[in-house]
Structure formats: structure tokens, C-alpha cells
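Annual report, structural modelling task.

Input specification for the cytidine-5'-monophosphate complex:
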Amino acid sequence: MSKRVLLIIGGGIAAYKSLELIRRLKERGAAVRVVMTEAAQRFVTPLAAGALVGERVFTDLFDQAQEFDVGHIRLARECDLIIVAPATADLMAKAAHGLAHDLASAVLLATDKPVLMAPAMNPHMWANPATQRNVATLQAQGLRFVGPNEGEMAERGERGLGRMAEPEQIRDAALALLTDGPLKGKRALVTAGPTVEAIDPVRFLSNRSSGKQGYAIAAALAELGAEVTLVSGPTALAAPSGVTRINVESAREMLAACEAALPSDVAVMVAAVADWRPSATAETKLKKDKTGLPAITLRENPDILATLSKPGKKRPKLVIGFAAETDHVEEHARAKIAKKGCDWIVANDVSGDVMGGAENQVLLITKTSAETWPRMAKEAVARKLAAAIAAKLSGKSPGRK
Ligand code: C5P
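The model returned the following structure:
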């Protein structure tokens, strides 16, 4: 496995963690080269970064000696992965708009290698629609993201989404991208968590799904090298490293996000999509004292699994659904394959404590086979399923006549 990493350090207080990241990458045998922006050098010195990588650090697009020696085009190409950490709002804006007036942005414009961004900024800067637009643009171009995480900010008393992912998390996401796993080059779409269907601005219908199983599947597919998009309803879980998470609330938003994420080689629909939504969402809060009990009429939500399973150019090669059953598990699961048009069903018996719990007991049903798996941790189920998916996409069973 080749592991040449070009680390671009942007100008943020999190730059000190990038020095730690250099060490974590080198421990795993990566050769690391460093580019620092001018702002980055206000937070950590090229001397410190240079001492850790054991070679000079690149800082200047217009320095004749640096450009003749290893120019920006060579920096952009002589690596297997570029990591931008911290990826500041400014650096992401430059990359999203194709600006190239300093070494870091010129390298990002010139590269044809995978790029992993580890954003770090104040929560307001992260939430700003301008930043979110830039992130969406970069994701659509295929750049990968790890973090940001939720937590304490450098500014006293501030908390929120914007902390840079920890060095180990960035390293793991980087290694996943560098690994030649059996799903390398394959795209995977996973849904997870509940959906939330608004009754009025403050009330909703939802369910108890924790998202654990779906998140574990997204992580396991990424570990095997797949490019994973995780479309998630509200959960308390952090996005697995190396996975692109798209947050949604309602079933209709989930369907739209899934369709936007196609084409994909495999789709694993794990979300507990609400079957119904209120037929109308009140624009203002329903008042208790008005005319007695409000009547909430329901209408059916779109079936995401059935929609994605429909034959067509964009249908993923392998579409997998989940089925939570309490009785006649195999029989009901087989009926579900036929009804939804999917290829496999992972059926679980939810008569016990599976929902929200750490373990799962499943039956993998294909059109031609049924396999009962022993009760195991949700992560283990995820790894076993990811391995089965890899085997299927490479032309080896299960479920192949
Ligand atoms: O019909 P049922 O809810 O039992 O089907 C479960 C499977 O269908 C799961 O894979 C779930 O993610 C998916 N599903 C869906 N959209 C719905 C309902 C279920 O994708 N509206």
C-alpha cells in the first residue's frame, strides 16, 4: 500500500493538532509532506512541522527556489492523498471557487488525487450558508470530509459544531481512503436513523431508531474502501470517519437526498422511515385552548427502498432492505423482497431488545438463499454484511445461483 500524504495546514488554532496528526500518520508508515498557508504559520511554525516530517515545509508559490525544486504541480501529483487540516472556511471557499493565489489553493486546484478535508472553525462560520454551500460544492466534486465535531471552542465559553476532528479520527479516515479494500472505487448509499415528520413547528411524529446499525454499516463499508454517503435522520451519533453524512428530517427529504446521491453500486436502506406523516403541517403552533382535541390525519410517506429498487438506469446493482419482524421472520422477509423489488433483506427479530440495543440477531435473505447469523454486536453484523456486499459486487455469492 502506497502512503504518500500531502498535508496542507490551514490557518486556525487547530493547526497545533496537525502536528500530532503528522506523528499519527508517520506511525502508520505514511510519508508526509507539508504545505502551510501564510495564516497557518501564525499558529505553528514551519520549523516544528519540518522537524516532525524530517524535510522542508512548503510555504510559498512564488519562491523561486521552492518552485524550481518541487513546484506546486509536483506537490499536487506526487502523493496518494491530500489532507487539509485544519480546513478553514477561507481555504474551503478558495477551493470551491477554484482560486489559486497561494501555494495551498494552487495545489488543491492542480491535483487529481483524493482530498480529505478536516474543517475547523467557529460554529457560526461553519453554519453560515456560504460555508455550507462551499462544503456542498466540494462534496459534489468528490472531496471527502472528516468532522467537524461538536464541542468546546477555543473562544472561551463557546460550544458547537466546528471543532476539528481529532488526529486519530483524521488518520483513520485517511487510511480508509488509502486502503485498497475490496470495495475501492465502489459507491455505497446507506440510510439510517428515524425520520421526523412535523405536525407543527414544535411537534412531530417519529420513532425510537438509534441509527446504530446503519452507522455501523456505513463505517464497515468505508473500511473496505467504499465511498460512502450516509443519509441520516436525527441521531445522537457522530459521522463515522471517511463517510459523507447528509442530515435530513422527513421521509421526503431522505428520498430526495438518496436520489441526489445516485449513482451508487450498492444501497443499504437501514433507516426506520416513518410510514406516515401528518397530511398537513401547521405553520404555527397548534393551540391547546382552541376547539378541543386537534384531529391529525395521516398520509403515506414515499417508500424509499421501493423507489430505489425500481428498474432503471440509476438503480444500484445491489439494493438491500431491512425488515424488523416479530414473527414468521423469513416468510415476511421473502414477501418483502417481492413487494419492494430489492435484492436482499436483512431481517431482524425485534421481539427482544434489539431496537436501541448494542446487539442484533439477523437473517440474511437473498432471492435464492437464507442465512441465519448468530446474535452479535451491531458492528460485527455490519462487518459481515459489508463483506457479503463486497463478495457480491465482485461476482462471488451469496445468493448467486
Ligand atoms: O415496509 P417496512 O417498513 O417493513 O420496510 C422496511 C425497509 O424498507 C427498511 O429497509 C426501510 O429502511 C425501508 N423503508 C423505506 N421507506 C419507507 C419505509 C421503509 O425505505 N417509507
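The first helix runs from residue 15 to 27.
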